[in-house]
Amino acid sequence: MQVLKPYLANIEHLTATSHIDDKKIYIHPKLKNLGCVSIVLIREAIAPVVFRNAEQEITDIECLDNLYVRAVPNKFKYIERGRGLQILRALGVGGKQAQNKTVLYKGQKVSDAFDLNTLVFGDSANYDNRVLPVRAAINYSDALSIKPKEQVVDSTFHNRAMEDGTLFDAESKKNSDNLFTRHFIKPSTLMVQVLSTRGQVLPDIGLKHLLLSIGLAGSYGGQTSVTGVNIKTHIIGIYADQFEQAITSPYELLKVLQPHTDSDLVTIKATLHEVLQAKHATSLQGAEVQQWQHDLIKAFEQNGSLLEQEYQAAQPKVAALFNEWFS
Fold it and tell me: Pfam families this protein is in (predicted)?
């Protein structure tokens, strides 16, 4: 994947030094250079999926004079950020704290909490009366259903019955009125999503970590204790250029797919790749990227692999970034 190098950060040069005056200096993350890398995905529902807020209905958004299912970025980022922590723990190179529970006590090094996962997905922590913020190197977009909401959402009606199988509550001596409707996204629904960088902020090992964290499938959304694994991820491709391109918005890709909403996955992938490739200086087709991802997974499962050595070599360099930045 050498063609992506011009758009990625250099793990050897994550920091830079600037002068406060003629005597004092400070260390900060290296100033960003131009470069944008976008990973375009199709999220396929392979079991009922629930993306909702406080209301019981599936979240949606109006676009192209219709309503489409909308999964906000954190519905996917939260799961994949958590998977990234698990990867670092398995390799013994990070993931020391629970997700969204990052705590630093006086006397600790910042790198005791911040690691490669922080660099990729972002984080923040309170430390010695300061808030330490780290902006994510990768930005998640909304995931939008390719077909209108009315075609991909269904519902079921439930009641919480007593242990004997009836609605009669022996304690209150009356029938339970605990009835509810569960709305869900139907299996085989396809959603388009884009993960992208802005500037050369993601090092090569960070991109590999991201591909491992995306994985092949997972449990996303609510009520996953009922559905289990419910999303399969397909990679359309990786696209890179000096400047961001409008076509990498999922809302723009939805317009491209309007004549193809009833097409199969192969046609949809080919259609998206064609328009994305034409707008970017560098592109890698999905089959090539997924083979790379499979190779990374295989390497991860082997003790002492070159990938494991890359992670181990990156750990002190990422630690130095955070320790020097926030010192």
Answer: Csc2
User: Quick one: average pLDDT of 174-178?
Assistant: 69
- Residue 103 counted as domain residue: no
Identify the DSSP state of 13.
-
Q: Give the pair of three-digit tokens for residue 237.
A: 């491709």
Q: Give the other-Cβ count within 10 Å of 188's Cβ.
A: 11
State residue 165's pLDDT score.
63
What is the model's pLDDT at position 176?
67
Rounded to whole angstroms, the Cα distance separating 213 from 311 reads 14
Q: Specify the number of domains making up the chain.
A: 1
| Domain contains 265 | yes
Domain that holds residue 22: 2-74+137-157+182-310
Amino acid identity at 254: L
Q: Token digits for 262?
A: 């009833």
Q: Which tokens is 190 given?
A: 């396809």
The sign one gets for the Cα dihedral 24, 26, 30, 34 is: negative
Task: For residue range 289-300, list pLDDT tens digits in order.
Answer: 999 999 999 999
Q: Assess contact for 236 and 286: CB atoms under 8 A.
A: yes
Report the Cα–Cα distance between both ends of the chain, in Å, rounded.
35
CA-CA distance, 205 to 196, in Å (whole number)? 16
Instruction: Look at residue 224 in the predicted model and tell me its pLDDT.
Output: 63
Has residue 239 been placed in a domain?
yes
Average pLDDT, the chain: 92
Rg (Cα) of the chain, in Å, rounded? 23
- What DSSP element (H or E) covers 62? strand 60-63
Most distant CA pair in the chain: distance in Å? 82
Point out which residues pair with 16 in neighbouring strands: 28
Q: Which residues pair with residue 103 across a beta bridge?
A: 126
- Contact call for residues 313 and 228 (beta carbons, < 8 A): no
Q: Does residue 282 fall inside a structural domain?
A: yes
Q: Residue 164 pLDDT > 70, yes or no?
A: no
